[in-house]
Amino acid sequence: MEHDVARELNLHNIKEYVQLSEGKTKQLMETCIWCLVHCKHSSGVKLRVEDENNTDYYSLIWSNDKIDHEAIFRSYNKDDATECGAEAIALMLSIQRTEYTAVERAITTTGIDYWLGFKNRNPNYPFHRASRLEISGIMTESITNTISSRVKRKIKQTKPTDYTSFPIYVIIVEFSKPYAIMVLKNVNS
């Protein structure tokens, strides 16, 4: 079924979405393309994104002319690619769909992946934390590895930073369909 797509996510432009290094954004782009090509998708594939309010569609775009597919497939394995590829999509979606942008990579013991800050932040205090982001990727959903079970597990995982009272976005990306779910957890609710 074809859907009208109002937005595009260009994987070559990840650096424009996030405040991360050139090397990190290139890795995110390459691993995301790795996952999509592994699942037999081509540039322009529609990503279905659901949250508590609605379902939207995004076209995932990349230029095969700028990509050395053989080198990419030698550089990553399925585990690394799934984790980082989901990170690429989740970061772009969080910026497209919320008032936040990624401002800092979180340490592992926090139970989250990124601290988020307001997009229109005060330039005198650019790293102000205002929200949290936890990301997970699934290459192909199965009976034993479902998106809904992953959401529950990831929400529990975020408890170490609940003391902040900052809202948290949990984004799970499934590459074979492709599909993403975005769940908002408000600690004060």
List the helices and strands in order.
Answer: EHHEEHHEEEHEE
Q: Domains counted in the coordinates: how many?
A: 1
Q: How are strands sequenced across the largest beta sheet?
A: 1-3-2-8-7-6-5-4
Major sheet? 8 strands, mixed
Quote the average pLDDT. Answer: 89
Question: What is the tally of beta strands?
Answer: 8
Q: Any idea what the radius of gyration is?
A: 16 Å
Q: Helical percent range?
A: 25-40%
Query: Which geometry do the CA atoms define?
Result: globular
Structural class: alpha/beta
Distance between the termini: 37 Å
In terms of DSSP E residues, the strand content is 25-35%
State the assembly state of the protein chains: single chain
Number of DSSP helical runs = 5
Low-pLDDT regions: none
Give your account of this protein's structure:
With 189 residues, the chain is an alpha/beta fold. It has one domain. The chain contains five helices and eight strands, in the order βααββααβββαββ. The protein has helices at residues 14-17, 22-38, 69-75, 78-97, 147-157; strands at 7-10, 45-50, 55-61, 100-105, 114-118, 131-138, 168-174, 179-185. It has an eight-stranded mixed β-sheet with strand order 1-3-2-8-7-6-5-4, with helices on both faces. Helix 2 (22-38) packs across helix 4 (78-97). It is globular, with a radius of gyration of 16 Å. The termini are far apart. The mean pLDDT is 89.
List the keywords:
5 helices, globular, 31% helix, 189 residues, eight-stranded mixed β-sheet, alpha/beta
What is the topology?
Blueprint: E1 7-10, H1 14-17, H2 22-38, E2 45-50, E3 55-61, H3 69-75, H4 78-97, E4 100-105, E5 114-118, E6 131-138, H5 147-157, E7 168-174, E8 179-185
Parallel strand pairs: 1-3, 2-8, 6-7
Antiparallel strand pairs: 2-3, 4-5, 5-6, 7-8
Helix pairs in contact: 2-4
